[in-house]
Design brief:
The protein is of the alpha/beta class. Helix content is 28%, strand content 14%. The protein has a five-stranded parallel sheet. This is DUF488 domain-containing protein.
Length: 134
Amino acid sequence: MQTASWYTKLPDTSQVIGISRGTPRGMAKGYRQYKALAPGPWFKTATTEEYIELYFTEILGRLDPVKVEADLMTMAGGKTPTLVCYEKPGGADWCHRGMVSLWLHQHLGIEVTEYGHPGFGEQHVMLPPSLRRP
């Protein structure tokens, strides 16, 4: 399993699974969506600290990580499940997909990295800085 931006060029072995609230216009067919991992309606107005708290409690706190992993693997149909949303790595932005990586690592020991970047869990490149650990 891995994460990426909607705009990352991925290999054919990847199954794009959107975890954002929407999808970019003109997105090529073939992607799937897993709305259970999308942020809540507060995603644009919450401070970073509020977002972290709300995402871990209101979104991830209500989910069973074993079921989420099973769902994502089924949706991928033998390909690598690639959880995507809008933010691109390398900028000042962070993204909830880094929190998904941390959550899956903490609960299941899964190493979910950003495509083309090292680090998972507490070292995921898209994790908010306040949650990152060296």
